[in-house]
Specification:
Blueprint (H helix, E strand, L loop, with lengths): L1 H11 L9 H13 L3 H7 L1 H11 L3 E4 L22 E5 L21 E5 L6 H9 L1 H6 L2 E5 L6 H6 L8 E5 L7 H11 L4 E5 L2
Parallel strand pairs: 2-3, 3-4, 4-5, 5-6
Antiparallel strand pairs: 1-2
Helix pairs in contact: 3-4
Length: 199
């Protein structure tokens, strides 16, 4: 199914994406991996569709009641669609990007998110996380590490995650005003354990 969609997208392209350079080819391919299929979400449910998106992009998920991380797209669990609920996401070195974050909309059980070395993560991704009502209630831990496109604006948007208890920010060169970030979180989330390792 995924291969069929990928090949249909590939056939629509008038000029080959790698005719310019390989960087634009990978950007194009990553954009296709992040494309939201609302029909698929309706058919299999938000947790399964989000799992497929995250694994397709190189991330890992952990389901409620399971110790091991799911990282192989081809070994996604089968069974009743409502059985597997995403509890944690580790997007280390993945290609998730803003256009794919609509997959998160129906997730209700995500407690932890780790974004590490995610080259396509930017402020709009974090703003989207902060706007999703379900995630505002469920996310309690986040780590954002070495995501070069993230700035103060994106970090401050996380103040809307009202259940957030732990936030680690490390190696974020776009974050310039640490004091304002600390103030924003002290005001909106006074019980937050905020760890800053920024230069």
């Amino acid at each position: 199914m995924l291969l069929g969609k990928l090949s249909r997208e590939f056939c629509r392209v008038k000029t080959l994406p790698w005719s310019c350079d390989s960087r634009s080819f990978w950007g194009w391919l990553n954009a296709i991996f992040n494309k939201v299929d609302h029909e698929r979400i309706r058919d299999v449910g938000p947790d399964r569709a989000a799992s497929e998106w995250l694994l397709r992009c190189g991330a890992m998920v952990q389901y409620h009641g399971q110790e091991r991380w799911q990282k192989d797209y081809n070994n996604l669990p089968t069974g009743p669609l409502d059985k597997y609920k995403i509890q944690a996401i580790d997007a280390t070195d993945s290609c998730i990007m803003n256009i794919g974050f609509d997959h998160m909309e129906g997730l209700q059980h995500v407690e932890k998110i780790k974004l590490c070395k995610c080259h396509y993560i930017e402020d709009s991704c974090l703003e989207k996380l902060g706007q999703l009502e379900n995630l505002q209630k469920s996310i309690s831990e986040m780590e954002i590490i070495s995501c070069g496109n993230v700035t103060d604006k994106g970090i401050v948007a996380l103040r809307h995650l009202r259940n957030l208890k732990y936030l680690l920010l490390r190696d974020l060169p776009g974050v310039k005003e640490k004091e304002k970030i600390v103030q924003a979180f002290e005001t909106s989330l006074p019980s937050l354990n905020l760890k800053l390792d920024l230069k």
